[in-house]
Input
Amino acid sequence: MIESELPLDREPYECLVKTVLAWTGENTLAVRDYEQIALQLTGHARTVASDVQRRADQLPRSSGPRALADVVLREAEGRLSATMEGTVRCVQNRARLVRALYERLDRLEAALAPERTAPEGGWTGVCRGAFGGGPQV
Output
């Protein structure tokens, strides 16, 4: 109940997702670091999925946005049940899931309040170095 009243701390996770998805080729972190990042993304994906479910439940069962949310939530459940690995691929898959859940959440919020638009910046905003002093994405 309390979770439904609190807004998600979205910006740090959007920055993490952007950073993870920008990784290419060479593994530069230790396996345990990839595992920790995957764990963080998994926990946040579950939180966002719960928020998507709460928003979807506010719409009529026959609505298109709710039906799409149900598809995304089923997909999320399947991905989250997969065993986590300490690999770039695993971490990037979790990051893609968080991104997809936020995109669905934005669409549900728009469907619930048509006059309201998606958060400013969305996935094109600038990260403010929330995860260390590394390069900003």
Observations:
- The chain has a mean pLDDT of 82.
- The helical segments are 2-5, 10-22, 31-56, 64-81, 88-112.
